[in-house]
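Q: Got a minute? One more chain.
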Amino acid sequence: MKSRTKIFLLILPILSWSCESTQNKTTKLAEPPTTQIDTTNAVKICHYWAKPKESFEFNTLGESKGDTITFVTCSDYVFSPFGEIKDKSQLKNSLLKNFSVTDRTDTMDIGAFEFQILNLQDSKLILFFDDDPEASRSSYIHKGEIMDGDANLADGVKIGMSKKDFIGTFFKVFPEDLLANYNHFVFESCVTDIWHTYTFNDGRLKSIKFTTDSYWEIDYKK
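A: Always. Here it is, folded:
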């Protein structure tokens, strides 16, 4: 009996060490892997990191409050959201070909200028093509509102598209938890004062509004 007791006492510590070792290994395997976030060329919004696409030419975050967020950008898109259009003769072959076009001349404080008034169902635009070679970079859109799915913008932007598809057009990475915080996305040009406001309802793009900081007050109807 003494011999058997001695053998049991010798085996017991070995079994105990083996269980502890197994438990330690199991604990290590159960730990989630550490996620490394590449923040190169990323922007921190609240506690999240978002990565703009190079083509978006993100400059900085603008004034944001509530469910509205503003991105300041130098991209061609903010100046030419319907693609590059140099004069009114190119409208019939552009993304604006669905719109009816009316030429109108208005007299301003420094002379008479021609504008194009565009309409498509509930959507409307006022265009002005500045042919002054000395003029600073600007947009051909004086102001406008897009409300209809038949209006086609550059990069596939369209009324009715999902919020996720919209932000994915301009960002490589934009966390879904962050995306859920906003219903109004504002693009502000980095030079001259141009703003696009994209408004979402139930996760779908409902309207787009274009504004410029111009002292010319031009109405859609004269």
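A: The longest strand covers residues 111-120.
Q: Perfect, thanks.
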